[in-house]
Specification:
Layout lengths: L27 H17 L1 H4 L13 H25 L8 E2 L5 H8 L11 H12 L3 E2 L11 H4 L4 H23 L1
Parallel strand pairs: 1-2
Helix pairs in contact: 3-4
Length: 181
């Protein structure tokens, strides 16, 4: 650790992999032994491979569908948090907000008419539309560059990281301040 140098972000942006001319080759036998051990374990103890994973029921065909499915999961989490807070006698009078940076996914959520590209998410459309109708949720649009969740899921520049971090700190301080009043 003595020779470590600080860097701006944890992951280098636009990094491309390359083979260097003076690079020492990897120990092929060691790699083959490792793969052999993993194959042996997958045959003798199949429950190891399937302990936490499961087969996907539907394959998303577009980024809109993927974003829409993520919205459904986010709304389910919000509803769970609302019920949990209700058990602590804390009621929410205002609609919960789930910020989304995909305008087409928001349009699908707001419009009950089935679009051609949503044939794989029809059940989810009805679920989200019900929550819109009873004013349980709102899905406001947020520009991609202002999406705070990106700092947790994507490689961002140092400037974006610091900007997002300061916005997170501001939001947390506002929640803390509102909670004390």
């Amino acid at each position: 650790m003595l020779g470590c140098q600080p860097i701006d972000t944890p992951i280098e942006q636009n990094h491309s992999l390359e083979e260097l001319p003076d690079q020492v080759p990897t120990n092929k036998a060691r790699y083959q032994r490792l793969v052999g051990c993993l194959i042996y374990l997958s045959h003798t103890r199949p429950y190891i491979a399937y302990a936490k994973s499961k087969k996907q029921k539907v394959i998303s065909l577009s980024s809109v569908e993927t974003e829409y499915r993520a919205m459904v999961k986010g709304i389910q989490e919000l509803l769970w948090l609302k019920r949990l807070m209700g058990e602590f006698s804390f009621s929410l009078d205002q609609p919960m907000k789930l910020f989304c940076d995909n305008q087409f996914a928001i349009k699908i959520a707001e419009n009950p008419i089935q679009h051609d590209c949503t044939k794989h998410v029809e059940i989810d459309c009805n679920f989200i539309y019900e929550k819109f109708e009873d004013k349980t949720i709102e899905v406001p649009y947020v520009k991609t560059l202002e999406q705070l969740a990106d700092v947790l899921t994507k490689v961002v520049s140092r400037k974006a990281f610091i900007t997002h971090l300061s916005r997170w700190a501001y939001m947390i301080s506002m929640l803390h301040f509102e909670g004390e009043c």
